[in-house]
Amino acid sequence: MRAAVLFYGRLRHYQHKYIGGAIQLFDHVDFFYSADNEAQPQFEDFIRIYKPVACCNDTISYEYDFEKYPGRTPSGTNMNNMIRHFINLKRVFGLLESHIQATDTKYDIVISVRLDLSTGNLALFTPEKNTIYIPEGDDHGGINDRIAIGDVESIKKYMHIIDNCEYLLENKLSIPHPETLTLANIKHCELNIKRLSMAHRLVG
Protein backbone atom coordinates (compact mmCIF):
# COMPACT_ATOMS: atom_id res chain seq x y z
CA MET A 1 0.00 0.00 0.00
CA ARG A 2 1.13 3.55 -0.76
CA ALA A 3 0.46 6.15 1.95
CA ALA A 4 0.69 9.92 2.15
CA VAL A 5 1.38 11.42 5.58
CA LEU A 6 0.35 15.05 5.94
CA PHE A 7 2.13 16.84 8.78
CA TYR A 8 1.14 20.32 9.88
CA GLY A 9 1.81 22.88 12.60
CA ARG A 10 4.76 23.55 14.85
CA LEU A 11 8.03 21.66 14.73
CA ARG A 12 7.89 19.96 18.11
CA HIS A 13 9.65 16.65 18.82
CA TYR A 14 9.99 15.92 15.10
CA GLN A 15 13.37 14.26 15.67
CA HIS A 16 11.72 11.30 17.42
CA LYS A 17 9.73 10.29 14.33
CA TYR A 18 6.80 9.13 16.42
CA ILE A 19 4.71 8.20 13.39
CA GLY A 20 7.47 5.93 12.07
CA GLY A 21 6.50 2.85 14.04
CA ALA A 22 2.83 3.28 13.26
CA ILE A 23 3.32 3.23 9.48
CA GLN A 24 6.20 0.81 9.07
CA LEU A 25 3.99 -1.81 7.39
CA PHE A 26 3.23 0.37 4.36
CA ASP A 27 5.10 -0.40 1.15
CA HIS A 28 5.82 3.25 0.43
CA VAL A 29 5.22 6.49 2.35
CA ASP A 30 5.43 10.05 1.06
CA PHE A 31 5.60 12.92 3.55
CA PHE A 32 4.20 16.43 3.15
CA TYR A 33 4.42 19.31 5.64
CA SER A 34 2.95 22.77 6.14
CA ALA A 35 4.37 25.09 8.80
CA ASP A 36 3.95 28.71 9.80
CA ASN A 37 7.34 30.40 9.62
CA GLU A 38 9.20 27.89 11.77
CA ALA A 39 12.88 28.56 12.53
CA GLN A 40 14.91 27.78 9.43
CA PRO A 41 17.50 25.49 11.10
CA GLN A 42 14.77 23.25 12.53
CA PHE A 43 12.84 23.34 9.27
CA GLU A 44 15.90 22.28 7.31
CA ASP A 45 16.60 19.53 9.84
CA PHE A 46 13.04 18.25 9.44
CA ILE A 47 13.60 18.09 5.67
CA ARG A 48 16.85 16.18 6.23
CA ILE A 49 15.15 13.61 8.46
CA TYR A 50 11.86 13.09 6.59
CA LYS A 51 12.82 14.03 3.02
CA PRO A 52 9.28 15.31 2.30
CA VAL A 53 7.92 15.30 -1.23
CA ALA A 54 6.73 18.88 -0.69
CA CYS A 55 6.62 21.34 2.18
CA CYS A 56 5.76 24.96 2.90
CA ASN A 57 7.01 27.25 5.67
CA ASP A 58 5.46 30.52 4.57
CA THR A 59 4.05 32.85 7.21
CA ILE A 60 0.29 32.44 7.56
CA SER A 61 -1.83 35.60 7.37
CA TYR A 62 -5.61 35.76 7.48
CA GLU A 63 -8.60 38.06 7.84
CA TYR A 64 -10.97 35.71 9.64
CA ASP A 65 -12.69 37.02 12.77
CA PHE A 66 -14.15 34.21 14.84
CA GLU A 67 -14.10 36.20 18.09
CA LYS A 68 -17.51 37.65 17.25
CA TYR A 69 -19.27 34.29 17.48
CA PRO A 70 -20.74 33.23 20.84
CA GLY A 71 -20.46 29.92 22.62
CA ARG A 72 -16.77 29.56 23.40
CA THR A 73 -15.92 26.84 25.88
CA PRO A 74 -15.44 27.88 29.52
CA SER A 75 -11.69 27.39 29.29
CA GLY A 76 -11.59 29.58 26.20
CA THR A 77 -10.22 28.90 22.74
CA ASN A 78 -7.15 30.52 21.25
CA MET A 79 -8.70 31.71 18.00
CA ASN A 80 -5.36 32.57 16.42
CA ASN A 81 -3.95 29.08 17.01
CA MET A 82 -7.15 27.42 15.83
CA ILE A 83 -7.34 29.40 12.59
CA ARG A 84 -3.68 28.76 11.81
CA HIS A 85 -4.24 25.07 12.50
CA PHE A 86 -7.14 24.97 10.02
CA ILE A 87 -5.21 26.94 7.39
CA ASN A 88 -2.28 24.54 7.72
CA LEU A 89 -4.64 21.61 7.14
CA LYS A 90 -5.84 23.09 3.87
CA ARG A 91 -2.34 24.13 2.81
CA VAL A 92 -0.70 20.75 3.39
CA PHE A 93 -3.49 19.03 1.49
CA GLY A 94 -2.84 21.48 -1.34
CA LEU A 95 0.76 20.22 -1.47
CA LEU A 96 -0.50 16.66 -1.78
CA GLU A 97 -3.06 17.60 -4.42
CA SER A 98 -0.48 19.44 -6.52
CA HIS A 99 1.84 16.45 -6.36
CA ILE A 100 -0.94 14.08 -7.44
CA GLN A 101 -1.86 16.33 -10.36
CA ALA A 102 1.76 16.70 -11.46
CA THR A 103 2.76 13.04 -11.18
CA ASP A 104 -0.51 11.08 -11.31
CA THR A 105 0.60 9.28 -8.14
CA LYS A 106 -2.09 7.08 -6.59
CA TYR A 107 -2.40 6.82 -2.82
CA ASP A 108 -4.29 4.05 -1.06
CA ILE A 109 -4.50 5.94 2.22
CA VAL A 110 -3.85 9.46 3.54
CA ILE A 111 -2.95 10.20 7.16
CA SER A 112 -3.24 13.72 8.57
CA VAL A 113 -1.34 13.95 11.86
CA ARG A 114 0.41 16.32 14.23
CA LEU A 115 4.17 15.92 14.42
CA ASP A 116 4.11 15.71 18.23
CA LEU A 117 1.56 12.90 18.39
CA SER A 118 2.88 9.56 19.56
CA THR A 119 0.74 6.67 18.30
CA GLY A 120 0.47 2.93 18.43
CA ASN A 121 0.87 0.85 15.31
CA LEU A 122 -1.62 1.38 12.51
CA ALA A 123 -2.90 -1.84 10.96
CA LEU A 124 -3.12 -1.95 7.17
CA PHE A 125 -6.60 -1.32 5.84
CA THR A 126 -8.21 0.15 2.76
CA PRO A 127 -10.35 3.16 3.70
CA GLU A 128 -13.96 3.11 2.63
CA LYS A 129 -15.11 5.94 0.40
CA ASN A 130 -16.61 9.02 2.05
CA THR A 131 -15.32 7.91 5.45
CA ILE A 132 -12.99 9.46 8.00
CA TYR A 133 -11.19 7.24 10.52
CA ILE A 134 -10.39 8.89 13.85
CA PRO A 135 -8.96 7.31 17.02
CA GLU A 136 -11.21 7.07 20.05
CA GLY A 137 -10.75 9.60 22.83
CA ASP A 138 -9.76 13.27 23.22
CA ASP A 139 -13.01 14.54 21.69
CA HIS A 140 -13.41 17.52 24.05
CA GLY A 141 -17.06 18.05 23.20
CA GLY A 142 -16.56 17.50 19.46
CA ILE A 143 -14.21 14.97 17.92
CA ASN A 144 -10.48 14.31 18.13
CA ASP A 145 -8.70 16.65 15.69
CA ARG A 146 -5.13 15.38 16.10
CA ILE A 147 -5.15 12.60 13.53
CA ALA A 148 -7.49 11.62 10.70
CA ILE A 149 -7.25 8.89 8.09
CA GLY A 150 -9.10 8.31 4.84
CA ASP A 151 -8.85 8.16 1.08
CA VAL A 152 -7.81 11.24 -0.87
CA GLU A 153 -11.30 12.62 -1.51
CA SER A 154 -12.51 12.10 2.06
CA ILE A 155 -9.41 13.73 3.53
CA LYS A 156 -9.80 16.65 1.12
CA LYS A 157 -13.24 17.42 2.56
CA TYR A 158 -11.96 17.00 6.11
CA MET A 159 -8.96 19.28 5.57
CA HIS A 160 -10.84 22.13 3.91
CA ILE A 161 -12.59 22.95 7.18
CA ILE A 162 -11.39 26.57 7.05
CA ASP A 163 -13.59 27.10 3.98
CA ASN A 164 -16.69 26.04 5.93
CA CYS A 165 -16.08 27.60 9.35
CA GLU A 166 -17.98 30.83 8.78
CA TYR A 167 -20.98 28.94 7.40
CA LEU A 168 -20.98 26.58 10.38
CA LEU A 169 -20.67 29.44 12.86
CA GLU A 170 -23.16 31.76 11.16
CA ASN A 171 -25.75 28.98 11.10
CA LYS A 172 -25.02 28.01 14.71
CA LEU A 173 -23.97 24.50 13.72
CA SER A 174 -20.92 24.85 15.93
CA ILE A 175 -19.27 27.08 18.47
CA PRO A 176 -15.80 28.55 17.73
CA HIS A 177 -13.88 25.62 19.16
CA PRO A 178 -11.52 23.27 17.25
CA GLU A 179 -12.93 19.84 18.10
CA THR A 180 -16.52 21.08 17.84
CA LEU A 181 -15.91 22.71 14.46
CA THR A 182 -14.12 19.59 13.25
CA LEU A 183 -17.11 17.41 14.04
CA ALA A 184 -19.54 19.93 12.54
CA ASN A 185 -17.48 20.06 9.33
CA ILE A 186 -17.45 16.28 9.04
CA LYS A 187 -21.24 16.23 9.35
CA HIS A 188 -21.60 19.16 6.93
CA CYS A 189 -19.52 17.28 4.34
CA GLU A 190 -21.68 14.19 4.95
CA LEU A 191 -18.68 12.04 5.77
CA ASN A 192 -19.08 8.84 7.71
CA ILE A 193 -17.04 8.46 10.88
CA LYS A 194 -15.33 5.28 12.02
CA ARG A 195 -13.43 5.25 15.30
CA LEU A 196 -10.15 3.41 15.67
CA SER A 197 -8.88 1.74 18.82
CA MET A 198 -5.44 3.28 18.50
CA ALA A 199 -3.25 4.45 21.36
CA HIS A 200 -2.12 8.05 20.95
CA ARG A 201 -0.88 10.92 23.07
CA LEU A 202 0.59 14.36 22.64
CA VAL A 203 4.23 14.54 23.67
CA GLY A 204 5.69 17.45 25.59
Poorly predicted runs of 5 or more residues: none
How many distinct helices?
Answer: 6
Radius of gyration: 16 Å
CATH topology: Spore Coat Polysaccharide Biosynthesis Protein SpsA, Chain A
CATH class: Alpha Beta
**Record field, number of beta strands:** 9
Average pLDDT level: 92
Counting structural domains, the number is 1
Beta-strand percentage? 15-25%
Helix content: 25-40%
Walk me through what this model shows.
The protein has one domain (2-202): Spore Coat Polysaccharide Biosynthesis Protein SpsA, Chain A (Alpha-Beta Complex), CATH 3.90.550. It is 32% helix and 21% strand. The chain has helices spanning 19-22, 40-50, 79-103, 152-159, 165-170, 178-188; strands at residues 2-8, 28-34, 54-56, 109-114, 117-119, 131-135, 147-150, 192-196, 200-202. The strands form three sheets. It has a five-stranded mixed sheet, with helices on one face. Strand 2 (28-34), helix 2 (40-50) and strand 3 form a beta-alpha-beta unit. The protein is globular, with a radius of gyration of 16 Å. The model has no long low-confidence stretch (mean pLDDT 92).
